[in-house]
Design brief:
Elements lengths: L4 E11 L4 E11 L2 E6 L9 E4 L4 E4 L1 E3 L11 H4 L4 H17 L2 E6 L5 H8 L7 E4 L3 E3 L25 E3 L3 H13 L4 E5 L18 H13 L3 E8 H9 L4 E7 L2 H10 L2 E3 L2 H10 L7 H11 L2 H11 L2 E2 L15 H7 L4 H7 L2 H6 L17 E4 L8 H4 L1 H4 E6 L2 E5 L5
Parallel strand pairs: 1-4, 1-5, 6-7, 7-8, 9-10, 11-12, 12-13, 13-14, 14-15
Antiparallel strand pairs: 1-2, 2-3, 5-16, 16-17, 17-18
Helix pairs in contact: 4-5, 6-7, 8-9
Amino acid sequence: MTEGSTFFTNAAVLDTAAGEITRGQRVLVRGNEIAAVGPDLETPGDARVLDLAGKTLMPGLIDCHAHVNAHTANLAGLADESPAYVALKAANEMREMLHRGFTTVRDPGGADFGLHEALAEGVIEGPRLYFGGKALSQTGGHGDGRPRGRAVREDHQCCPDLSTVCDGVDEVRRAAREQLRTGAHHVKIMLSGGVASPTDRIDSTQFSIEEIRAIVEEAEAANRYVAGHAYTARAINRGLAAGVRSIEHGNLLDESSVELFLEHDAFLVPTLVTYERMAVEGADYGLPAASREKNPIVLEAGLRALEIAHRAGVNICYGSDLLGGMRRHQLQEFAIRGAVIPAADVIRSATVTAARLLGESGRLGQIVPGALADLLVIDGDPLADLAALTDPDTHLKLIMQGGNVKADRLAAA
């Protein structure tokens, strides 16, 4: 249930689009929306007044690549687990995500309409969820978790695997339609090999051009879009040319890829923190040895790809892609990116640019009238030091989602 009115005074408001902070601002929240922003607003008589004493007020964070079901790094093993068990583990993790400051996440493989509805109805607490259902993979592709000796695969809707396997234009059309009929906000496809899959090479390309185009056609017919897992420039370029809207990871892109990103106004969602953490503690959380051997190939190239894309002006969104217990490092992507690109651009990737990918410009990622009241109070200036975002126990003083206060530590500040 949404609270009444909240009136923030003496706030340093972070304008994510401009990359600037304006001090001495007042912000009025009515219901679940931001009603007004300005220095001279009159205090409403019916509002709860919160004096921020100069602290930063910013939009809630958006993670565009988070697998809420992936409580283990052994993704193939998820297929054999109870969906009830996986859902309960996901509920716990989503609560943690919200309390790190992520008021919205996009799950590109695994989360379904059940988790979406549970969050929307307040059955469980967590970020607003944009889900893709099961990712589409070709046989032997990044979403096919079978070992080489197994022929049988279970693709039932209730199986908590993150992917489904389909081959040929007719099959991929049907698979895309199956995800879209559940209300999926996007369709995720595997355009290349990956780290956490047992039988494919990272430098492989996956799905034929005809198959990719068929999936894109189905998504566009439903007014949705396609997100594509891809590492190499060859795989990235095939996807972008066929109409894929967002490229997940993109660690091995090159200048030819950049041209296509710009031509199609597409989005790149790097996920650098997951490779760093898999290198350090992947084995502890179930990452198989074959996957650990592939990880260095993409780990070393990721920062260079981020720099190339940023320098060219590609739309870049925030992603973490962490698995199992490594998800506690979700905020460290800010620190990794901040080492090579300006803080304002890192923050845009987790707010205003992410909102545009989700089709929520003006509703998420900004403090403007008419936006949803997803707000964070930060003790510090994230533009001056991104550490203000990476240490929520110290700096995160209030979390508001849709006008509801989810955590309030202002009195202790």
